[in-house]
Amino acid sequence: MSEKLILIDGHSILNRAFYGVPDLTNAEGIHTNAMYGFLNILFKFLDEEKPDYITVAFDLSAPTFRHKVFDGYKGTRKPMQPELKQQVPLMKELLKAMNITVVEQEGYEADDILGTIAKESAAKGIDVSIVSGDRDLLQLADEHIKIRIPKTKKGVTEVEDYYPSDVFNLYGVTPHEFIDVKALMGDTSDNIPGAPGVGPKTASAIIQKYHSLDNVFEHLCELKPPKAKISITENVEQIKMSRFLSEIKIDVPIDYKVEDSKAGDFFNENSYELFKKYNFKNMLKKFENTDIIAKDPECYEYFKKISDFADVENVFNKAVDIAGGIEKIGLSIVRENELIAVGITLSDTEIYYIPVSGFVTESYLADRLSDVVSVASNRNIASANIKDYLDIFEKDKINGYPLVSEKAFIDTAIAAYLLHPSNESYDYESLGREFLSLTYPSKTELLGKLSINKAVNEAEDNLIKYACLSSYAYYKCADKITEQLKSENMYELFETIEMPLIFVLFEMQQQGISVDKQALVDYSKVLGTKISVLEKEIYEAAGEEFNINSPKQLGVILFERLGMPNGKKTKSGYSTAADVLEKLAPDYPVVSKILEYRQLAKLKSTYADGLTQYISEDGRIHGTFNQTITATGRISSTEPNLQNIPIRMEMGKAIRKVFVPKDGFVFLDADYSQIELRILAHMSGDEKLIEAYNSSADIHRATAAQVFGVPLEEVTDEQRRNAKAVNFGIIYGMSSFGLSQDLSISRKEAKEYIERYFASYPTIKTFIDGLVSDAKEKGYSLTMYNRRREIPEIKSSNFMQRSFGERVAMNAPIQGTAADIIKLAMINVYNALKEHNLRSRLILQVHDELLVETAEDEVDTVKQIMLDGMKNAVSLKVPLEVDLKEGKDWLEAH
DNA sequence: TTAATCACG
DNA sequence: ACGTACGTGATTAAC
């Protein structure tokens, strides 16, 4: 077996990776997608070929000998995108860290280096594979040199391999003749002229016949077709030059010895650091069998399962001692329906797994955990997703509220969320990576698809690792996260808003909301009947039966069978979205029916039928409120989503009616009036807007009066509507296109509205410009309470991405501040209800709205509590107005 | 699993 | 010239 060398065309592969991999950035905002893609391709070839040697060649930006011959060489090439350009030096650094030879040579291109090394190595009897995206390299193919071109099809990388025979089969010429083909046909991307009018077909036909340019020139008069004959005859010198430009050098003077480019030792400490820095998570696995990572979880040796009752007692006694002081413990609860085990870390060397078994019963464990929690008041208990486990610590309660102090905990997931609200996960694995620079095995790696209950029996060792490791990660991260929150001025946000909010959300989830199941079932039937009537009518109009729920089938019916004028919109065909259909509705009655069908189908599937499955035995829906999902700081609601229950459409309102208070209670529902615009007024300090809020009840009317220069009472409905849309636009990050869509007007008109608005409110203009430039400078935006949102897109060179970043920079501080304020209000209301010892409970939040299930005899008190809690959550330069209503169902109360 | 659609603020 | 309003989650169809 002869030895193998892999040669990689650095720029070509990096370029290919850049366009093939969606934009990625690491925590510092460095773009990493091209590097990531490059490495993927690299590893693929390494795995496949297991080469003895490896080398990567790069171009230098300096002019090469080809530029000296032809000034316009590569002259039409666009400059490299900055996101790609910044990755080039980093990629070289990465390769060097992996002990991969990087070659570049002034005056020459990577192709020439590759050619030289390939031929020299092949001469030494080494088998060479050249990896490139560029077909120009095919001329280098020979019996010992294979050209390998990776292609990405549907996310899967496939490779086209070229030996000389493959080149011949495809192009009918030998690799060497390929140079002459290119000389004739030219190359637009390199700006090589060739013979004008001669394309790839003609060029290869000619070379197939004559085999070399010299021979072609000798037979000029017999050339066919006539067009090529003329072109070639007239451009002999240009073709010769083109050939010179096209031929890859194989004798570049370089200081390179293949023996010095041994493949191996890719995964070392240097490369590990860089992989971590660039957040190449799944590639870190490659380091697993090296001693770099093997030594990482040094905590493993201290993991200990404890079942002996006396030992367990000792651990908890010690935990109580620690948690009652100022030191921390790490806590991980393992639960699936029932409590199964806890992982608990007392120090670097005391890491325990305590399963429920024998005398260690579930209730014993819960009691002892409560003991630990009840003595803690200095954020001694580091854990994650505390809300999900608060019920365990509920041993002592007052009026139904857990006695546990919020100051007992530090929730690492929530803390990590504040630092990077756009991350997708804040589990122990991510924490380890970010705060400890350690790569822990993930939950999936340890437990796979096993349920916890199964894992207890089938993979206990891994379950022990999981429980111990996560508690250890919380323990180790807590101080670092705290430190970082403090240095970023976010600790106050964490302490005064997010941590207390956990308890509010917990209580809301516990309470749930009562739903009239029978009403829901009845309504589902009504909807079902209406839907089948519409269905029949639609089939009749269409002339055939089809699945109306399938946008694909519907598109075919509407735009092909019924021949409606179509605007192709989506990737995979016609758009049948509501705004498209609404334009067609006046001309085609069936379209209105489809819209109605869609509306009813949605109501039935998502709400009437969808909600019933969430009704618990107590007749209530206990949804989940998530505190670490949104990029802006809002909370989100799942299983079910109680924040998108219908209200706008008439048919949908019936759904709201099924949400009812329990016997002896009523709903009190309060919502902020235009909180986001008020925040805008406050943050910008715009006197006119502030004045408008201080004097007028109708801000959109006031805006219209200001913008159109008419007295308040003369504002037309249309003017008010437009002003309202512009106000929304401001909050969303104004764009003329968006506004024009919303108002169904031209972009030009929309632009005029915006200009008029900014002319009327110059301070607002200055303010939002400031938001954008601040975000551009810092890479993130901030709310009034220092909530951060990272906006890497704002530095993109891609217009669309950058524009998006700019809109986010305008919106996030406003939407985020509103989120901060209502969170404060929730805490206020929760605390007041608790302090007054009331039976009434806060049960829902819908972004600017709070719903309290109120005992009938507490209505007056609660009204006051809600108004106070919401209006006085913060003092702005404008009043915070709250609309409060009482009702026997959610529709009536809203 | 992803794309399209639509419910809410 | 680029092609969009900001933030979510559930359902369905179709790969």
Automatic annotation (TrEMBL):
Its EC number is 2.7.7.7. Residues 652-858 form the DNA-directed DNA polymerase family A palm domain. Pfam families: 5_3_exonuc, 5_3_exonuc_N, DNA_pol_A. GO terms for biological process: DNA-templated DNA replication; double-strand break repair. It is an enzyme of class 2 (transferase). It comes from the Bacteria. It catalyses: DNA(n) + a 2'-deoxyribonucleoside 5'-triphosphate = DNA(n+1) + diphosphate. One of its GO terms (molecular function) is 5'-3' exonuclease activity. CDD domains: DNA_pol_A_pol_I_C (cd08637), DNA_polA_I_Bacillus_like_exo (cd06140), H3TH_53EXO (cd09898), PIN_53EXO (cd09859). Residues 3-264 form the 5'-3' exonuclease domain. Keywords: DNA damage, DNA repair, DNA replication, DNA-binding, DNA-directed DNA polymerase, Exonuclease, Hydrolase, Nuclease, Nucleotidyltransferase, Transferase. In addition to polymerase activity, this DNA polymerase exhibits 5'-3' exonuclease activity. Single-chain monomer with multiple functions. Belongs to the DNA polymerase type-A family. This is DNA polymerase I. It comes from Lachnospira eligens (strain ATCC 27750 / DSM 3376 / VPI C15-48 / C15-B4) (Eubacterium eligens).
